[in-house]
Amino acid sequence: MKSVNRSLEFLRRVSRRRRSAQRSVASISEYLEQSAALLMPEHLDDLRTALPLLNLQFATIEAPQFPHLQHQLKLLADFFEDTADGVFPAASEASRKETAFTLRYAAKETDIIPDFVPEIGYADDPLIVCTVLSRHQDVFHDYCRFRKIRWENNIFAP
To answer: What are the start-end ranges of the H helices in 17-61?
Structure first.
């Protein structure tokens, strides 16, 4: 838990230097919530169309220090697709929008910590992913049960 707290503090310091700091964002959770709220229906439609390519992109992520990241992104992509197609009803618009923001965020190479930075490039992505999973834990737990996916504590591991 100490390393996660240090990572969060590091990301806060880095983000203060980025454009997101101009919006007075105090935490990763607040950043996620505020950013997701800005998504419009056309952004969600564009994301739905881009999902097959994003899934391929996520499958090629090489971040051995974050062994659960690919699995988590696959879960989020499947959840988003199933809610977009009406296969699984999202519990709230917030869970769907925050999932969409997280997928869009993970797809960008230049985010709070650019993905190409050796060893730490993906450090921000699992924090955003874990934040959306924990903020909507009940929804994702229900989704895993619906899809017969084994829900494990390590799904929240960075």
So the answer is: 28-37, 41-59
- 155: nearest Cα among 65, 76, 43: 76
pLDDT at 80 over 60: yes
CB environment 111-136: b (16+ within 10 A), e (fewer): bbbebeeeeebbbbbbbbbbbbbebb
Report how far residue 149's alpha carbon sits from residue 14's, in angstroms, rounded to the nearest whole number: 35
pLDDT greater than 50 at residue 2: no
> Whole-prediction pTM value?
0.82
Select from 128, 136, 137 the least CA-distant residue to 158: 128
| CA dist., res. 109 & res. 107, Å (int) | 6
Distances, alpha carbon 80 to alpha carbons 23, 86, 94, in Å: 27, 10, 12
Exposed, middle or buried, 51 (CB in 10 Å: 0-12/13-18/19+)? middle
Q: What is the tens place of the pLDDT at every residue in 27-66?
A: 889 999 999 999 999 999 999 999 999 999 999 998 888 8
Longest dimension (CA), the chain: 42
